[in-house]
């Protein structure tokens, strides 16, 4: 590994069906694949990625992009059932890193980002034509999303599928059409998500484009993918979770989006404007009852080695209202005042949060009871704004 005096040596590890060397490719924004290097699994765990120019990098586990690409969440749960020929454990929680590499190298042609791992997955990418869908097909795609080729390994437990519609690659979230209270709440939350991202854009911060629609009783939310360009083009990105695991470590530096932004800025991985936007999004999220601000819900485009640029915002909604199983659990909204790290963004985020609660209270697609809850949240936040010394 390496060149000249910096050369080090390690024993290679062979993975069933893959061997000791796995080719890596990157798909550019025009849809053309390029050889990027070779992944060498190592005997004592981790891997060495050798670039085409002979340089490389060693990783203790999977490289960050591979961790993001791996099957996960709602779409990942059915992966082993859809591909029994790979012999993978049925539950992805039981997978080792070798299992993840087998899945990516043999069936990883449509993953998050712009990388493709393995010649077999590249061949599948080259041989797979786009299959445009229409919104009229959404109910059937929703019903089959757990048993068919659902598409990319986009994470998260919200039911979803991917599609190519009217020249756009979209992630389509959906809520069932039954009459249960939990299903109704999920339908309302999908409406809330689209409106939250509208509010983020109104504040001057990029957010994923969305479209809300109802077909055959299903509530759908199209979220346009920002890792896809045109028909076949792709863009590389990494989640904050992958960056934190690889570069920030597990010593408390990444306890929140705001604290992670501080360390990313100090390490010169991101610029000052992106750090400010992250603090704003974290503040807006907590002032709009988004209790799901985990590190998989913030991502970055790759500008170069350890150089990142914030992607548009996504997955922004008042998850405090989410059902627990089939039950609706009443929770109290308790917005927090500014801190030393959010002082510069709190007042602006709070004003947009108030506008958001107002919009929800006036949205007729939401139930009267839910709109009344949103009005109470608005009033609680308005009182905090009145008292806050900003």
Automatic annotation (TrEMBL):
Family, per entry: Belongs to the HipA Ser/Thr kinase family.
GO cellular component: cytosol
UniProt region (Disordered), positions on chain: 136-158
InterPro entries: HipA-like_C, HipA_Ser/Thr_kinase
Molecular function GO terms recorded: protein serine/threonine kinase activity
Protein name: HipA-like C-terminal domain-containing protein
Pfam families from the UniProt entry: HipA_C
Keywords attached to this entry: Kinase, Transferase
Domain HipA-like C-terminal: 152-377
